[in-house]
Amino acid sequence: MDKLLVSGPCRLEGSVRASGSKNASLGVLAATLLVEGVSTVRNVPRTIDVLTMLDIIRSLGVGVEFSDDGTVTLDATEITSYCPPYHMVRRLRGSFHLAGPLLARLGRVDIGLPGGCTIGPRPVDFHQNGFRDLGADVRQAHGMMLARAKRLQGTRVYLDPRYASVGTTLNLMMAAVLAKGTTTLENASRDPDVVETAMLLRNAGAQIDGLGTSTMVIDGVDALRGEADYRVGGDRIEAGTYLVGAAVTQGDVTVTDVEPSRLERVIERFLDAGLDVHVGPDQIRVIANRRPKAIDLVTAPYPGFPTDLQPPFAAMASVAEGKSIFEEAIFDGRLTYMDELRRMNAEIKRVRNIAVIQGVPQLSSAPVRAPDLRAGAALIVAALNAEGTTEITGVESVDRGYESIEAKLCSLGADVRRAPVLHSLAASELGA
Predict the structure, then answer these.
(1) Is 431 exposed, middle or buried, given 0-12, 13-18 or 19+ CB atoms closer than 10 A?
(2) 132-148, pLDDT tens digit by residue?
(3) Catalytic residue at 83?
(4) Is the Cα torsion angle 233, 238, 242, 248 positive or negative in sign?
(5) Domains in the chain with CATH codes
(6) Beta-strand (E) ranges in 288-395?
(7) Residue among 199, 223, 165 at smallest CA distance from 37
(8) Which of 1, 74, 286, 311 is the most buried (most CB within 10 A)?
(9) Positive/negative CA dihedral, 79, 82, 85, 90
(10) Contact present, 357 and 346 (Cβ < 8 Å)
């Protein structure tokens, strides 16, 4: 296990390229199981979540190669297993994306139910009910979902509009691609991760309309054959994190290889904070010549403000001028990380899913622990502002979704070092 040592304060300045989207990559890689042939997926980030997904896909008998340039080649001509190993599945909630492709392709899937999550429950009831709507026999036993269908049948599926679930939309869209007839998904997620997965499938011959809208129509085909080739877009959450770094350090950061239209609500919040924002065809620049102003925000499904950027923005609000009010409307447990920000002298009052953040001129260093992926990124960003060296443990959670985060921050002028966590010897080992 590693820790990060972040020495501050510093000023971030320069340009950094966004890696391929981790979340989109998980959906796109799962979708390759529907292609009876070779798929090439480019610009895939080398993160722990992606590596875990590739290990699971290999366990199903699929040939997988991951080159140094971020290109993954997968040969799913044959799939030898319909049961992903639980010891792998339990490490990655996104592994449940494999349920729809396996059910559609093989007519059966046995997959472990996802475990608990530090940011709040994310049940798979919607997935299972959708599979039943498509004609599958679905039951739970021994901590697993067991689903069977000779061939899925197209139908109209009504998803809960309160959630616009990305995972449910992905699973049902992928399952419907090989269903007999037409499937209509109402209240589907409009998230870019769904659009990117659909683009890989369309490149392989799938018939999917309504991308980026809340109503998707999928005309099932008998099979997807041949070669599919797709390049994953830049990670908008990673991009937003580095741009927050500019705000927190009163810096000047440009993130390239990212689609600005996917960050419209985020750009609006930067403008609300009084920052200079410059947008190009595939880049965003944030210039902070002074402390940001306080902002209010409420998270919402895409195209609303992304829940995954709420923690980094809380780090920004912690050093803003004035009082900010944040409401987390997606995950009940997401705000618990704010206790760690308080250790760095952030002034935060929280009641359930609402937080009031009174900005201070500067944070102070402290030993903190990253409770989850996005909270870990927030603590790193906050440490860039803090006086002294902040020690952040639990960074394996950050490595799940950020590729070479310390190297990228150092290229912008930060002082970030990775070091092993040294555990003290137990008394028995000392001979006491």
Answers:
(1) exposed
(2) 999 999 999 999 999 99
(3) no
(4) positive
(5) 2-19+234-420 (3.65.10.10), 22-221 (3.65.10.10)
(6) 296-298, 323-327, 347-351, 354-358, 367-369, 388-393
(7) 223
(8) 311
(9) positive
(10) yes
